[in-house]
Write a structure and sequence with these properties.
By secondary structure, this protein is an all-alpha fold. The chain is built from 4 helices and no strands.
Length: 109
């Protein structure tokens, strides 16, 4: 698990849970389950990349780096991009296409 400011965020917990389940003998994910886990892993890579950039900026600011960091996040456009990528490699592209359409229709926050 990767705690951040004393908290473990859902995507990290989910990944750790799946890894422990595999170590305990659970069958590996297949089909759409595996595709969803792949999306999760890609989103985590984006979060980790953004986190390292933000840590570098905070370290350069000196005393400001002591402030609590906001929870990690991914912009809606990046999520839609990853869902389209999943659709392009999927055995169930209609699932991903429907998800992308719904995500694209959401109001921007």
């Amino acid at each position: 698990l990767r705690p951040r400011d004393g908290q473990v965020y859902f995507l990290y917990f989910w990944k750790a849970f799946c890894e422990v389940a595999c170590m305990a003998g659970a069958a590996p994910a297949e089909g759409l389950d595996a595709e969803i886990e792949t999306l999760r892993d890609q989103l985590l890579r984006r979060l980790d990349g953004a986190g390292s950039e933000n840590r570098g900026e905070a370290e350069g600011r000196g005393s400001l780096s002591a402030r609590p960091r906001p929870p990690p996040g991914i912009c809606a456009d990046a999520l839609v991009e990853e869902v389209h990528r999943a659709a392009s490699m999927s055995g169930c592209p209609r699932f991903w296409q429907a998800a992308a359409v719904r995500l694209a229709r959401r109001p921007q926050v």
